[in-house]
Structures are given as structure tokens and as C-alpha cells.
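User: Quick sanity check before I run a bigger batch. Here is a single chain. Can you write out its predicted 3D structure?
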Amino acid sequence: MPRLISATYHPNIEVAEFICEDGRHLLRSGGTLPWRINNPGDLTARMVDGVPAPRKAKGYVGFATTRSGRTFLIFPDEGAGREELKANLKRLHGDRTISEAIPVYAPKKENDTEKYIRDLLKTSGIPASKKIGECSDAELEKIVNSIAEIEGYHANADTRKETWVAVSRINATDGSQPLPGTEIILQRGGKEETVKSDAAGRFPPVIHPADKSAVHVKVADPKSRKAVTVGTIEGDVGKDFNLLARFKRWKGVAGSEKINSSTLGQRTPMSYVVQPGDSLWKIAKLYRTSVEAIREANERGHDRIYPGEVLLISGSERRRLGSEAPAPHPTTVTKPPSVSTTASPAALPKRPVVSPAPPPVPTAIGSSDSARSKEGEGKVLALINPVSGRAPWMPIAIAEAKLRRGETELTLQEKINYHIEIDDTVKSMFGRKSAWCAAFVNWCLMRANYPIENKNFPERKIAKARAHGFYEVDGPKKESGKDRKKIRNPLFVELEKPIYGAVAMVTSLSGTGQHVGFVYAKNGSNGLILLGGNQGQQINFSYFNILPVAPFVTKNKKGESVKHKGSPSYLKYFVPIAYYEQAKKDLLDPGIEERSAAEINKAMGIEVAKSADANTTPSLR
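Assistant: Done. Predicted structure follows.
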């Protein structure tokens, strides 16, 4: 059977839908849930804030949430499901006997635990006194066979049904970058359905009708607003289609033909912003290229990618970074502005930047000409086109963090002063009274074309320098000019939960904002990793508590008691009001992956200063 690479579950019709590497879809119905999702052990997914987030499970390709609200792992085949069941038994129950393990594995609230234990001991033949971790491979196979039988994997075999269907995909693109939120109309027979492209410009897959009829793709004419047919999907073989140049042209992509190429072999490099949940395989599939080609273009020897990174997607005429290139074009990747020849060695990056340089900033944003130092040493800016997708300011923040590579504020401000960049009246980044975390966040938002200043408000400039300013500012002046009541900042909306890219305000027990950064990842049950400035006097990824932590005591290696103060602070979350509609969708899938600050900083080439370690010590967790 061809390899199945991803899957989803439709609880309303009890159908598991698998996507094959060749683009076909496999629909499994009938039988039992364990069979439909290739999960002989009925293994459930670990949930964090209502979202499946398995920490150590391997081999799964999707999640199945049933009508009862439980979420199970979906595996590509029975073998993968059996392997994870064995790993789960060893990992979580290795030091238990069957009688001790089953009350944890199959709780009483969902199972007849006593009967489960009796049946498992009887059918597996494993001695009641033997721990699972002491079982041989053959004995473990017997336990797995028995669990699969008890969970009903083999039941109702006569009702099982597998159906292969052809599926075509449609991508909205301007010829270089995906277009999210674009609408098309799919006409099947006499029925029409309007669908939208996601953050990566992808529309929901189109399943070819079983009766071999055609599916007509329509878009609204810009002038008449009438639906006009731009293409047709039909046949027994699925294909990829692009809607190019805002629907002026419909293009089908077959075989190895490159996506977004008007002339084969003359494709210019383009940038792609990694979205939460992306993988190199998904990106390669979207752009009809290969994982190896993306690795080579970005000079990587591994497949690890991180949300917000900018990858170079190139064709046969790819130019390596640093090579000679023509004048910049909005979709062409070029070198970042270089340091002038008079710059001192200390002003240069500590090691060559191997990640692809982002494209130049469009004229609507404009580059900064603020003074970097008394010597006029020039500037090194992380310039990037705000690319459509989730939290468009995040690629800017990440590019800047990579470029600065952990440089501390005293020398960093010689190259860029975020206070001056956003004109918040503060002149220096050095010292406690010149905290620049809010200035960095506002600079990133400004570069992404989001407003950061409330015009006609008193102290509107200095508010941009305050962490608390994302929550509360001085309201507009009254006619008397004396009344200046505090109001919620109208430029930002508070969210109940964190999402990828949200502005997180570290808040004291009195409700005052003390620090701000961007939500990037989660770390444990009470920790978020924030990307921010002035974190240990650097731009880096650091750990912060979601909720306050009470004082606690631990033991060191010598067995001595160590007292920890804990932390009284907690987090509040905000997004620009212009992003709020997208944020409401993001709340359904927050896009926050499990990562450690150390892992991300290392991957991004950020050397964390010792003074920044306070944000990652166990005492704050």
C-alpha cells in the first residue's frame, strides 16, 4: 500500500480520511474506531489547553476527536499503531504488573477495569506477578494482541469499507507568494460551495465526484462581481492547480512542473514564511519541489524548521546568498544591507548568517536612517517583506533576532536603537529606566504595517516605550486639558488564551505590565517561550510563567534543601485590533508547539548571555 502521510477524522459520519503521498485520499468507514484509525490500543492524545499535544508518542499522522469529545491518535497502518502501543507500555507502565497498569491505562470511568485485567491475563498468558518491563519481545507481542482484541480492533470486520478517491488541490498565489483568505466557488452539478484559502494560500482539497462529473471552479469578476468559471477539475487523477495573478490565469501543475513558474527553468528565488504545523515535506509539496532542494537552497543538513523562519524556495537559476544579483525586486531574495567598510570588527555578526536573507522592505514601510553610533558606522537591518500568514510580524522579529545573534544592548544600540526607530522619546537602550522590550515589540509591529501610536492622545509617544502600554494608556484630552483618564489601548485586543505571535505582557499581581514579548512556544504545563527584546539585555527566546508560582523547596544533589522564591507574575495576551478576526480563528488552533528556550536559541544561532538565564531557571517554573 502507498504510504499514508496525514489523516483526519469526521466524527459526524464516523469516517477516517487518510492522505497518500501520491495525493490520493483513502476513506475508512465501518468496523470499529480502533480499526478505522489503525490504533489497536485505543491510545489517546495528550491534551494541552484543549489541543492535542503528544510529547513522546511517535508514528502518528493525525488525531481523531470523537463525538464524545475524546481525542485519539491516528496511525498510517496497523504496524505503526502496534509499535507505539508497545512503546507506550514500556515507557509508562514498565515498572508495573498488568494488574497495576490497567487501572491507569484503562481507567474505571471508561472501562470495566477488573474484567479488562482478567481477560488480558487470560488471553496473554503473562504471569500476574511479572512486570511489563521484564517481558520479552514475544510476551509483549502477546500483550499487544490481547489489548487489540479487548479494545475491539478486530470486531465488525464484515462492515469494514475502504474507498480510494482522487483529490485535486488548488493554491491561490500572486506568482511568488501565497494569497490567504481568497474566495473561490466550487460548482458540483447544480450545487455551489464557497471556500477560502488558508494562511498558506491552500484551499480545502477537492474530492473528484464518484460519478465522474466535473467540478467547475469560479471566481467573482472584479467589475461585475458575477461568478466566472476559471477552470475545471475532472478525471481519475488528482492534480495541483494554481490561481495565478489574482485569477487572471488558471494553471494546472502536472508531474514535476514547478509551481509559480511561467517559464520552466527561469524561476527566481522566493521566500516562504514557515507557519505553525509546517514541515519541509508540506512546503515541498506546496511548491512542487523536494525536501532536498529546500535543504540545499537554505544550506541545511537537517529537516528541523521553526515557525516564523523565512526559507528560500528557488528554481534552476538559484543564486547562492552572497553572490551577485540584479537590482532588488519585491519577490526576489537578496543579501541584507552590508556593514560599511569603516565599521569596526565588533559591529560585524559573530559568524556568517546561513539562513536565507529576507526580501527588502516595501516602500510602504521604508528603511530607517536613524543614527546608529557617533562614528556613523552604518546600519545592519533585518529587512523583510511582511508575508501573508499567521502573525505577519513574527518573521520580522525572528529575522532581527537571528541577525543580532544575542548581542547585548550596550553595543546593539550602536547599530539600531528601537526607541529612536519608533520615536518614543527615549534616547538610550541602556539602563533600567530605558527598558526596550516594548520598543522592540512595537518596532516589529510597525515594520509589519500595524499602527502602534494613538494619535491625539496625551503621552502618546512615551506609551510606546511602556510594557503596560499594550493594555492601558492615557485617554484623549478633554476640552479642559486636565482630565486624562486611563483607558484600554484601542489599538490592541486582549485574548483569553495565548496564540502564536500574540503580544504577551508579563503582569505583576497589581495588574501592571512589567515586560512584553511575542508568544512563540510552550514549555511544560505552566510555561511559555517568549521572543522578545531586553531579555537579559538581548533579543532572545526566554521562559516565562503563565500563572504565578508559589515559593517551593527542592533538594540538590547533596540532598540539601534549596528554597526558591517562585514568581508572582502572570501573562496577559494581546493582538492588534486589525488582526483580531484572524486571531479568533487562531484560538481554535493556537499553533504553539512544545519547545525549550535553549533549543530554539541554539537553532537560531543566538548566544544567550548569562544574565538571561534567570528567565529559564527551574525556580521560575
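The chain has 13 helices and 29 strands.

User: Great, the batch can go ahead then.
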